[in-house]
Amino acid sequence: MEETIKNYDSYTSGMGKSSADKLFWMSKIEKINTVVDFGCADGTLIREMNSEMPDLQYIGYDNSKAMISLAGIRTPHELENIQYVSDLKESLKENNPNKTLLNLSSVIHEVYSYSNINGIDKFWNNVFGYDYGYIAIRDFCVSRSVNRQSDINDYTKVIRGADELQIMDYESIWGSLRDNRNLIHYLMKYRYKENWDREVRENYFPITLEQLLSKIPTYKYEIIYFEDYILPFTSSKIKQDFDVDIHDNTHVKLLLRLKEGVNN
């Protein structure tokens, strides 16, 4: 079951801080009239999209009724090209998927964290089953090469500088920071103290980069943009707090385009 978000303002503010990075695809698309933002939360990202591309239709989907309600409250009523829904399938009946971009921003890891196997399978069927013209993915993701022992100096700096009780809490769920994946995972979330009970249990790295790429049906979609990286702010903050340099990429950006001749 999904952990309760104790502070919605803190949660949505944190999600919105990297909006520009999440909109990497905007200069790379053409011939679409609709954007579906899957996991829209309070609509912060949709409103940012609309400010950049106001001629498009926007559909915000979230399985949290509280978030859908909050999104409606925070979106000016005069923005009639924006709608928020809790039934994505029904809302798509009025749109041509070939002229639609599906935006998956920081949502894949949440689906894996809060869904069962059937829910995860349903999610991927929804992603690749509607023949969207474009699919934009931006999320946490590490390569399988992250699975190695932590650098002993990095480990020592972190356990000296971090909150001991927070580390104990984290390690009781994920295991020792002597494992490099666990160390990187911890460094992605140690700052989220206000919603820590939720964040500590959320798996930021549920699938590897290699597993993510293997999900793409290459007979239907081609990758037209790819980047794996670490957010500069995150890297500099970790350096500032612990004097640790991150050598593993922690995020991925992917833009997929439906191939010519596939239902268009």
Describe this entry's structure for a reader.
This protein is α/β, with parallel strands linked by helices. It contains 13 helices and seven strands. The protein has helices at residues 8-16, 19-22, 44-52, 65-74, 88-92, 108-114, 117-129, 152-161, 164-174, 180-189, 196-199, 209-214, 232-242, and strands at 34-38, 57-61, 82-85, 100-105, 134-140, 221-229, 251-258. It has a seven-stranded mixed sheet with strand order 3-2-1-4-5-7-6, covered by helices on one side. Helix 3 (44-52) links the parallel strand 1 (34-38) and strand 2 (57-61). The protein starts with 7 loop residues before the first helix and ends in a 6-residue tail after the last strand. The model is unreliable at 10-16 (pLDDT under 50).
List the keywords.
seven-stranded mixed beta sheet; 17% strand; single chain; alpha/beta; 264 residues
Shape: globular
Strand percentage: 15-25%
Write down the oligomeric state. single chain
Radius of gyration: 19 Å
Helical percentage: 40-55%
Structural class assignment: alpha/beta
- Overall pLDDT confidence: 91
Low-confidence stretches: 10-16
- H and E string: HHEHEHEHEHHEHHHHHEHE
Tally the helices: 13
The largest sheet is:
7 strands, mixed
Number of strands: 7
Distance from N terminus to C terminus (CA atoms, Å) equals: 39 Å
Order of strands, main sheet, comes to 3-2-1-4-5-7-6
